[in-house]
C-alpha cells in the first residue's frame, strides 16, 4: 500500500482524505456555503460520501500523490474542513481549494492549511503554477486567495458549469503572480 504525504502546522494536521472521513465529508458537502459557492455534489447519504471519496478523491491521489486533505485540529482531533490540490478539467495549472465547517471559520485555519498546501505544491509536488476559481459572490474566498499571493486573472467557465468564475493564479516556482493574458 502506498503511503501519501501528510503535513502539519502549529495547530493543524493535514492528511489525505480517507474512507474514515465519510461522515465528515457528508456533513461538509451539505453545508449552506458549500452548496451555494461550490455546488451540490449529490452526496445525500454516508454511502454517497464513501463513493465520492472513492471516485472523486482517491483516483487523483493515487495518480498524482496529492488530492483532497482533511484538516484536523491538533488540540482535540476535531475535523475542521478540507483543503487540497486538484487537477481540474478546464484549468491550466493545479487548482487549490478549501472549505470549512461554518463553526470553524474566521479562526485562521483556512489560511494556515491553504498556505501549507501551497508550500507543498512547489516544495513537495514540483507544481509550477497553482490556480483557483471562485464565484463572484464568494468574497471570503477571494480575500483568502489574495492573502495566499494568488492574483485575479480573468473570468472563466469550466466544463459542465454555466457560471462564470473568477480565475486566480500564482507561479509557485518564483512566487510571482502570473500576468493576465493579452486580449
From TrEMBL:
PROSITE patterns: GNAT. Residues 12-173 form the N-acetyltransferase domain. It holds the Pfam family Acetyltransf_3. Keywords: Acyltransferase, Transferase. It is an enzyme of class 2 (transferase). GO terms for molecular function: acyltransferase activity. Its EC number is 2.3.-.-. SUPFAM superfamilies: Acyl-CoA N-acyltransferases (Nat) (SSF55729). This is GNAT family N-acetyltransferase.
Amino acid at each position: 500500500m502506498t503511503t501519501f504525504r501528510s503535513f502539519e502546522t502549529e495547530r493543524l494536521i493535514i492528511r489525505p482524505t480517507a474512507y474514515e472521513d465519510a461522515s465528515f465529508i457528508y456533513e461538509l458537502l451539505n453545508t449552506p456555503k458549500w452548496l451555494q459557492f461550490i455546488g451540490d455534489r449529490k452526496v445525500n447519504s454516508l454511502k454517497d460520501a464513501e463513493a465520492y471519496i472513492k471516485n472523486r478523491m482517491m483516483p487523483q491521489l493515487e495518480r498524482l500523490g496529492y488530492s483532497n486533505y482533511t484538516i484536523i485540529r491538533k488540540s482535540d482531533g476535531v475535523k475542521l474542513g478540507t483543503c487540497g490540490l486538484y487537477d481540474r478539467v478546464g484549468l491550466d495549472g493545479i487548482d487549490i481549494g478549501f472549505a470549512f465547517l461554518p463553526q470553524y471559520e474566521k479562526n485562521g485555519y483556512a489560511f494556515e492549511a491553504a498556505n501549507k498546501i501551497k508550500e507543498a505544491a512547489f516544495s513537495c509536488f514540483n507544481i509550477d503554477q497553482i490556480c483557483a476559481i471562485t464565484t463572484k459572490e464568494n468574497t471570503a474566498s477571494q480575500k483568502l486567495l489574495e492573502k495566499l499571493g494568488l492574483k485575479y486573472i480573468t473570468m472563466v467557465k469550466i466544463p459542465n458549469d454555466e457560471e462564470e468564475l473568477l480565475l486566480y493564479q500564482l507561479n509557485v516556482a518564483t512566487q510571482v503572480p502570473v500576468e493576465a493574458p493579452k486580449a
